[in-house]
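Structure first, sequence second, as always.
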């Protein structure tokens, strides 16, 4: 499948992408992963990206597109790909459209994970992460709690609420999403590519996506 996943932070993009890759061998592609891989491989674009990252700046879209172009042509993309968290803005979506045309790639579907704001807030503010950098096990104080004393079941280190998972931080992230990324919903709806999925069960959403792909 060749799919774009859209959804606010906490909408479950990561979990759904993982289930979809298990289904048909498509690869999950996120901007962060391909940037890190290009930097690690020391490719010319990777070196260029590293210079921006080392300077604490944002990697420009033009460079991200070059890295994306190379990534989409790697052999493991033959079975398909799931773009997770990309594109993030309308200009990126327009660039991606041109790139896919250039590579003769046709998207199957743009999935919009339409999850209510209060569900997202609840999911993210109840998350706890193991403070041990080499463990980083993720817990949820409601559905998958750490030990009663708040320590990690795997390694015994204290679990913490990450700075970007406090209520204030999450409201900020949702605001950024609504400003920059939510307009993509309109963009892809106009292209006739978009389908909304609002189930709170990842499994059910994945079944829905599979059905849409078969049509
Ligand atoms: Zn741990």
């Amino acid at each position: 499948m060749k799919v774009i996943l859209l959804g606010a932070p906490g909408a479950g993009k990561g979990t759904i992408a993982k289930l979809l890759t298990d289904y048909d061998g498509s690869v999950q592609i996120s901007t962060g992963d391909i940037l890190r891989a290009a930097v690690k491989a020391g490719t010319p674009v990777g070196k260029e990206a590293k210079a921006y990252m080392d300077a604490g700046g944002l990697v420009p879209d033009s460079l991200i597109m070059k890295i994306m172009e190379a990534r989409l042509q790697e052999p493991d993309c033959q079975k398909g790909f799931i773009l997770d968290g990309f594109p993030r803005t309308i200009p990126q979506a327009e660039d991606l459209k041109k790139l896919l045309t250039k590579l003769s790639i046709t998207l199957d579907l743009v999935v919009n994970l339409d999850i209510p704001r209060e569900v997202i807030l609840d999911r993210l503010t109840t998350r706890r992460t193991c403070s041990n950098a080499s463990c980083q096990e993720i817990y949820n104080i409601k559905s998958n709690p750490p030990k009663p004393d708040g320590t990690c079941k795997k390694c015994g280190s204290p679990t913490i609420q990450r700075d970007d998972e406090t209520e204030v931080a999450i409201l900020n992230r949702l605001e950024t999403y609504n400003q920059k990324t939510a307009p993509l919903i309109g963009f892809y709806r106009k292209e006739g590519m978009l389908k909304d999925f609002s189930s709170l069960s990842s499994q059910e959403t994945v079944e829905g996506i599979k059905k849409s792909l078969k049509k």
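Margin note: Strands lie at 2-7, 27-29, 81-84, 109-113, 127-130, 138-140, 159-160, 194-197.
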